[in-house]
Amino acid sequence: MTHRLFTAIRIKPNQEMNELLQYLEKFNSAKTVERKNLHVNLKFLGDTTEEELKKAKKALQRLEGFGEFKAKLTGTGAFPNKDFIKVIWIGVRSQRLEDLAEKTEQAYTEQGFKKRDKPYKPHITAARVKTKPDPKIKKAFEEYNKHYKDIQIKEAELIESELKKEGPNYKTIKKIKL
Q: Which of 3, 7, 20, 39 is catalytic?
């Protein structure tokens, strides 16, 4: 049996985040992320075996004691870009988060997982866009492109993602205090 895993920091939406999500929910072309599933990804592992799951738990354990910190939410953007929207996100900026992502990468690489092949771009996915978006969706980049309240980061989790027709179901496998 395989497990589709990733390591992340779960985020509870604040008022500004909820306003953005409510705005995006108006569009048929956008599927917002369920509020309980909002997160900042540290490391995507993909499909893993039972043996790799044990190694992933060990890697996560290495992050314990890193220390709590604050991160800035820095506005709204899109992947791959604002003219061709597939994902709408909220940016996250913090040197401590960058350091944590690097430590995460090192811990997983030492356990035999493949090293990330793209630069780390911390963000919270707000919505995925499946079809050509309504042009009014771009209003989100002006209206909600602001500094949100800082978030406090205290924990990291190893999460299993079960993909279902109605959307992913996330289950915490292991949680650690930073």
A: 39
Kindly name the residue from 123, 129, 159, 161 that is annotated as catalytic: 123
pTM: 0.94
Contact 62, 103 (CB under 8 A): yes
For the chain, what is the domain count?
A: 1
Catalytic site includes residue 3: no
* DSSP-assigned letters across all residues of the chain: --EEEEEEEE----HHHHHHHHHHTT-TTEEEPPGGG-EEEEEEEEEE-HHHHHHHHHHHHTTTTS--EEEEEEEEEEEEETTEEEEEEEEEE-HHHHHHHHHHHHHHHHTTPPPP-S----EEEEEEE-SPPPGGGGHHHHHT-SPPPPEEE-EEEEEEEE--TT--EEEEEEEEE-
Residue 39 sits in a domain whose CATH number is 3.90.1140.10
| Digit-coded pLDDT (tens) for 124-152 | 999 999 888 888 999 889 888 876 889 99
pLDDT, tens digit (0-9, with 9 covering 90-100), for 3-34: 999 999 999 999 999 999 999 999 999 999 99
Residue 154's domain comprises 3-177
Contact call for residues 175 and 156 (beta carbons, < 8 A) = yes
Respond yes or no: is residue 123 known to be catalytic: yes
